Amino acid sequence: MATIFFCSDCGHETTKWSGKCPSCGSWGTLRESTRVTGKNVKHGEVNNRVVPERIIDLKYGEIDRLPTGNREFDLVLGGGIVKGMVSLIGGEPGIGKSTLMLQLSQWLGSLNKKILYCSGEESAEQIRLRSKRLQVSSENVYLLCTNDTDHIVNAMSDHHPDLTIVDSIQSVSVGTLESVAGSIAQLRESANRLLRCSKLSGIPLFMVGHVTKEGFVAGPKILEHMVDTVLYFEGELRNQYKILRAVKNRFGSTNEIGLFEMTNLGLVQVDNPNNIFLSHDQHQPGTSIGCITEGSRSFIVEVQTLATSSNYGTPQRVVVGLEQKKLAILLAILEKNLSLYLRNNDVFVNLTGGIRSSDPSLDLAILAALISSLKDKALAPKTVFIGEVGLNGEVRPVSQLEGRIKEAQKLGYEKIYVSGYSKIKASPKVIKIRDIKALYAALES
Length: 445
What we know:
By secondary structure, the protein is of the alpha/beta class. 25% of the residues lie in helices and 26% in strands. The longest helix is centred in the middle third of the chain and has 18 residues, at 184-201.
């Protein structure tokens, strides 16, 4: 047994403690752990040698997926659950991780699939009450309440379920290690044993993970490197709409998102996603409409801005759903190209519906909303702004522009502002502008 230190943020490993991680620079993140060392194998003692093969000679077939029956969940996974896939799902406490896993058990149980639900945090009575509320009535769902990782591994080997769920990975531990459950050593060893059992038996495994105050899965970063898929729940706790996003997926795209609504019967997939990102009254000063793309789908989103005189020495710059640096860049572009003085104004920007996006196509919509708020004049109704704005004020084309325009036209929008450098032909409904000066002139007319 050797003493080592792990960084809880980046997973860096070192034999010496220090206040600052030498890899990522985070302070106070090094945690003491133990490493189990084995005997060194001398040269020539290995009997089973592994021979490398050429990649082009390897035989492969199509990935066999198991659909869950929920369109949004399958979309995030890339089409369904893959045999032997290990997934980690994280999110804020109370956002719906356990609810989703229990509902997943019901979805697959109704398809005559055997589900092993392992809980290390709740008693059998608590889970039975929640399952009754969520109408989980399948006879194929089996519950195992334990904090021992080996008990879960043995149950997987004995019962051969079609899916295993562990809620949560921080609550289970290996009895042979002296550290407490949730420590770095326990997380690494428990996850490694569960992963090895899942891969050897071909049983898909879902692990629920706690998150830190920064919103990342707690524990070493290597936990996310070990699994095949990492899912995150997003959205405000008091908002009924939740967003499931894949930040890592070895069997599909990481660009897709799943949209759910939290009801008294659990999470329900959203049939018309565009309705949740729009308010009832869009014809207000400081409000504009943009279009973002997540994977294969385009969504119409509403951008709300407020520019008002500052009552403090330093003006506030507050954004919700966007990056803080993005707002600073766009304000500098406004001041440089349109001579709009904003240094004495508080500026607030919000994406409605609780969505978060880094899509550069929102630049034009944000600037249009800021101009509208500064002039206290509402924009023309049924208008969409799609374009990235460069540092010199030029409006650049964005990817998948045709799909965004079709989505806007399908929802009845009559004016769509796009980059003048795009290959899309201009029309009465599609208006091309080359820079934000042209945008300002178009909003004045």
